[in-house]
Every structure is written in C-alpha cells, then in structure tokens.
From TrEMBL:
Coiled coil: none annotated. Signal peptide: none annotated. GO terms for molecular function: hydrolase activity. The keyword tRNA processing does not apply. It comes from the Bacteria. CDD domains: GATase1_2. SUPFAM superfamilies: Class I glutamine amidotransferase-like. This is Gamma-glutamyl-gamma-aminobutyrate hydrolase family protein.
Length: 251
C-alpha cells in the first residue's frame, strides 16, 4: 500500500495565555484529509530557525490558507496603515519561502484567501484594501452572524476564464462562491494569469503561467464546503490528484 500524500500548511502565529501558538484553521486541514485524500503537515513559522528544504523534500504539495492577519504592506511597496492590520510577519516570511520554492520545485500549490494574496505579492503584485469603499466595487466582507455556515455561505458568482486551469476543474462556469475579504489583488503579479473574476472586476482566482505543476490561487473559501459543494470538492480533488502525481513522479 502506498504511503499517504503529505501537504505542507503554513502556521499562523498567535499570542495567547503567555504562549506563542503556531496553528492552522481546521477547515483547511479537514478538507485536505476528507476530500483531497492528503495528510496535512503544519509548518511552524520559524523560518530562520529551521531548514525548510528538509520539509519540502518530503511533502507532495503546499496549501497556503486564509488567516485573520493580512500580508504586511511593506512587502508590496505600500506604507503601513490601520486599514491593512492586523499583521503576522512570521507567517509572511514563511509563506514567501514556501510559495517561491514550491513553484521552483514543481510542487503542487493551492493558495486560498490570504494565500491567494500572498501568491500575488510573491510575484511582485500589489494589494488594495477596503475595496468595498472603491466606487463600483461590491462589499465582499463576511456578514456578521454567529453561525459560521451563514458567514461562509456562497453569495455571488464568478466568471471563469475559458480554457484556463480553473475551467478544466470546475467547468465553464459561472460558479457561485463564498468570497469573504476586504483586501484584493490590485496590480496583478508578474507571470500570473486571471482564472476567475467577480461581477465588479475583482480578481478572484489566478494561476501561474508556465508552472511545472498545479499552481492555483483562489480568493474564496472552497475548503468550507468541500464536502458538499461540487466546485469546491472538484478543486480539492484536483489538488489531491496533482499531489499524487507529484509523489509518483518523484518515486
């Protein structure tokens, strides 16, 4: 029996009860286990104290998750302001390495929410914040509700780029998504291709042109409904299949 595929997941850093915690939301971990058929490996955000190559030589894919924090604006040439807070610079350093090295190695990469924005910044793109205040833009923020299922309900369609990576997974679209954010891609990163857009023009999905393997960024949250929503399931299944193909090719 073949060994399970392993997927590296970057940890967020939280200070609580006099400890520093390195953790990841379990919705992503459960989607990897239950739908992608993968075993998640949470990577602590201690980039300067460990050799990431040791991990990347052993895993079969990388998933960068959403988070409560945002990419620090200095990473894309913008001055810090309260509108961009909160930050997690430890995670920034970790995901910059994970994204860059996964693409270089040909490791499958699925980048969601903050991860999608990190992918754009890693390719020298920029982000805009409080996009709901920009004339002509929709309000993409989550509603206030005690039930997470209501907060993460699908709320608008996205147009899927014909002939792209996403279209090969979910079909021609449009598809309905739960895109919850107040930041979004501003200037598209070098070498990235738009895979889906919201009705207001917000870039909702990207891929990496010429990537050696699966490399997809999504602004929405397929992990939340991966067990019940067909497009969400298809995305995690495709990522899992890419990870298994990488494992088989690696030998």
């Amino acid at each position: 029996m073949s060994s399970p595929i392993l997927v590296a997941v970057p940890a967020d850093v939280h200070d609580h009860s006099n400890y520093r915690w390195h953790a990841s939301p379990d919705t992503y971990l459960k989607a990897l286990i239950r739908v992608a058929g993968a075993t998640p490996v949470i990577v602590p955000a201690l980039t300067d104290e460990m050799d990431l190559s040791v991990i990347l030589e052993r895993v079969d894919g990388v998933l960068t998750t959403g988070a409560a924090s945002n990419v620090h604006p200095e990473r894309f040439g913008v001055s810090p302001s309260p509108s961009f807070e909160p930050y997690d610079r430890d995670r920034d350093r970790l995901t910059e390495r994970l994204i860059g090295e996964s693409i270089e190695r040909g490791l499958p990469l699925l980048a969601i929410c903050r991860g999608h924005q990190e992918l754009n910044v890693a390719h020298h793109g920029t982000l805009a914040t409080e996009i709901q205040e920009i004339p002509g833009r929709m309000d993409h923020r989550a509603i206030t509700h005690e039930d997470q299922r209501e907060r993460y309900a699908t709320r608008h369609d996205v147009a899927v780029t014909e002939g792209g990576l996403l279209a090969s997974i979910v079909g021609p679209g449009p598809i309905r998504v739960n895109s919850l954010h107040r930041q979004a891609i501003d200037r598209l990163g070098d070498g990235l291709v738009v895979e889906a857009s919201a009705p207001d023009g917000t870039i909702e999905a990207v891929s990496v042109a010429g990537a050696k393997a699966f490399a997809l960024g999504l602004q929405w949250h397929p992990e939340f409904w991966a067990e019940s929503d067909a497009p969400s399931a298809a995305i995690f299944e495709a990522f899992g299949a890419a990870c298994r193909a990488y494992r088989e090719q690696r030998g």
